[in-house]
Amino acid sequence: MSGQGEDKVTSWFAQQSRAREERFPIGIGDDMAQVNMGGGSVLVTTDMLLDGVHFDLASAGAEQVGYKAMAASLSDCAAMATRPVCAVVAVALPTGFGEDKLKELHAGIVRAGDMFDCTLIGGDITAWRDNAGRFVINVTMLSECVDCVEPVKRSGAKVGDAVCVTGELGGSIAGKHLTFVPRVEEAIEIARAADVHAMMDVTDGLVKDLSRICAASGVGAIIEAERVPMTHAAKEGNDPLEAALYDGEDFELLFTVSAEDYETLAGEQSIKAGITRVGLITDSGRIELQRGRDREVLDVKGYDHL
Amino acid sequence: MSGQGEDKVTSWFAQQSRAREERFPIGIGDDMAQVNMGGGSVLVTTDMLLDGVHFDLASAGAEQVGYKAMAASLSDCAAMATRPVCAVVAVALPTGFGEDKLKELHAGIVRAGDMFDCTLIGGDITAWRDNAGRFVINVTMLSECVDCVEPVKRSGAKVGDAVCVTGELGGSIAGKHLTFVPRVEEAIEIARAADVHAMMDVTDGLVKDLSRICAASGVGAIIEAERVPMTHAAKEGNDPLEAALYDGEDFELLFTVSAEDYETLAGEQSIKAGITRVGLITDSGRIELQRGRDREVLDVKGYDHL
Fold first, then answer.
1. Which stretches make up the PurM-like C-terminal domain (chains A, B) (predicted)?
2. What is the ipTM metric for this complex?
C-alpha cells in the first residue's frame, strides 16, 4: 500500500478482496458489508473501541462505554438506511475488572440496543493475564433492509446533489460522543421519502467523511460555511467552524440527494433530528469551502485512527 | 451472578437475554447464535484473541496469528455443522506495527479463509496511542446451514449416546494451536451421515467441554481412559492422559450419537480426521473417568478465560 493512514489501508484491503458480487453485493470500504446467504440478505459491521482512545473507562463508567460501543454500530446501520437486528459483543477485561462493572457494561449495551429493538445474542469474554492489559470492546452488528429500500452506499453522489446532514456538528468530545442517539429512525425516514444517492455517518469529521463519499462517487463538493449547523459545544470553542468541519464522532448522517428531493425532505416535519443542506456536489474532485465570496480548497484532515 | 469463571458469566448473560425464539432460534451459550433475518437464516460467532494470552505475536509472527484467529472461528462453524461464508475482522495495533506486519496478518487471515471458501468482507483497524497498548484481533464469522441439516447444538445429548472426538487430543500449545485445520468438512460429513445429538469444538479441554454438553443436555458422562486418542505432543509430556483430558485449544470436534450411528460413522472411511469413541453419556450428571476397573468422578477443571 502506498501513502499514509486509514483510508490507504482500507483501499489496499479492498483491492485484495476476492468477494464475488452476487454473493457479496457490498464489500470492504462502506459502512457495512452486505451478504446474500442462508436464503436471505444481511448486512454486517464490526467496530473495535479501546480504553484511552475511544473513551476513558475510568471517567465514563462501564455503562456509558457499553452504550457508546453499541450506539456506534447502530449508527453504521443508520448510515446504510438499514434496520439493526442483533449484535454480538466481545470484550477483553483488565485484571480485576469485576462482576459489577461487567453488569454495568451489559446494562449500557442493552440500553442502546433496546432503543431500536436490536438484541444482544452472543459474545466472547476474555481477560488479560497481567495488569498492563487494557479494556477493549468489539461490537459486530447485523442489520436488514427495510421494506424495499436498498442499503444506501457511499458511491452514488451525483453532480448537482444537495449535501445534507442531520443534527449539528462539532465538539462531540464534550459529551455527545458518549450519549448520542444513533440516527436509525431518521435514516429510514429519509430513505423512504427521498432517493438518497449516497450516505454515511459522520465519525471522523464532516470534511474527511465528505471526501470519502466524493472519492467513492468520483465527484467533488463545496461546503457553504454559513450553512454548517454547529452544536452548542462547538460554538463555545475558539473556532466553531473548525470544530464543525473537523471534529470526530458527530454520529450524524451525511447524505446527498437531488435538489428536488432536498426540498421534499426539508418539508418533512417528522424527521426529528432536522436536516440541513450544507453544500453541493461538484465535478471538481476536491472539497472546497465557500465563505462569503471566498472559495478555498480544503485539506482533507480529520481524525485518523492509524 | 454467583460462583466463579466464564461459564457462570455466560449463564448470567443468557438469563438476561430477551431474545425471542422465532427470531433467534439459538442464543447465548452455544458455539454460534442463529438469527432469522433478511429473509433467511444465518449463524454468527465472535472471538477476541489477545497477544500474550492466545498467542505470542513476537514468536508466532503475524501471518500465523491471522491464520489462528480465523481458524478458531471456522472451528466454531464446524462445531454447529454449518458452512462458513464470510468474516469481518477488527484489530487494535500497537504503535509502530507497520504495513508489512499488517500484510502478513492479512495473508494469514486469507489463507485460513480460503481453505473453506470463507471470504473476508470487512473490518476495522484501530491503533493504541502509546507503547503500552497490545495487539488484539477479533473475528466475527457468519455461516449457514448445509442442505437440510439443522445446526447441531450442545443440548441434545441422550443417555446411552457414544461420546466421540475427531483427531487426537492434548499438547496443542506445542504448535497445533497455531496450525490446526478446523474440522469444517468433517463436521458436515458427520452430520450428513448420522443424527448428531450434540456437538461442540474442544477449546478448553475435553473434560470441561464435555461437562458443557452434559450441563446443556442435563446428563452425565463416562470417559474411558484407554480410548482417549493422544497427540504425539501429549505423549511426549509427563502425563499424556492429563494433557489429553485438560489441555486447551485442541480444536477437535466433540459430539454424541446413538450407538448405532457410531457404528455407521466408524465405517465412514472418508472422514479424514478419524473418529474415536471416548466414552458414554450417562444419567449421573457428573463426568467420570473409567480406568481399568476404577471409576472416579473428575474435577471439571480446564482452561478458564476469566
1. 174-290
2. 0.94
